[in-house]
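Key result, reporting period 2: structure in, sequence out.
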């Protein structure tokens, strides 16, 4: 056990130094661009499992999520941003069917926005 004491002392020294953690913190510059991620999910019971009906339902929900992603910029511009653009979007769909339950369509979306923050108001 004596050979563990030096390792424990080094570990204690590294974890006891709050200044080390503070040095790794970097604040975003005022007005600088930041990435924002937004996620959506839609779950709907499927009435028909015919391929055409599923494709139509899937298409409708994909369009809804794309329009919603586009509308996110309006929300950010109205509140905290001076500039906003969608820089990435992914949409996935899945159908789950369990015995005794109607099938369910799950549509998930992740949107990445690049926004430029407004300058913070001056302190009183």
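The corresponding designed sequence is given below.
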């Amino acid at each position: 056990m004596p050979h563990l004491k030096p390792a424990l002392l080094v570990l204690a020294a590294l974890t006891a130094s709050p200044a080390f953690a503070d040095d790794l913190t970097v604040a975003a510059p005022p007005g600088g661009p930041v990435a924002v991620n937004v996620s959506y999910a839609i779950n709907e019971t499927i009435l028909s499992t015919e391929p055409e009906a599923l494709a139509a339902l899937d298409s409708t929900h994909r369009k809804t999520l794309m329009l919603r992603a586009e509308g996110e910029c309006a929300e950010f511009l109205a509140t905290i941003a001076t500039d906003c653009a969608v820089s990435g979007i992914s949409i996935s769909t899945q159908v789950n069917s369990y015995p005794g339950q109607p099938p369910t369509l799950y549509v998930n979306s992740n949107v990445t926005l690049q926004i430029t923050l407004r300058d913070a108001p001056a302190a009183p």
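Residues 32-124 form a domain with the GMP Synthetase; Chain A, domain 3 fold (CATH 3.30.300). The chain has one domain: 32-124. This case is discussed further under Risks and Mitigation.
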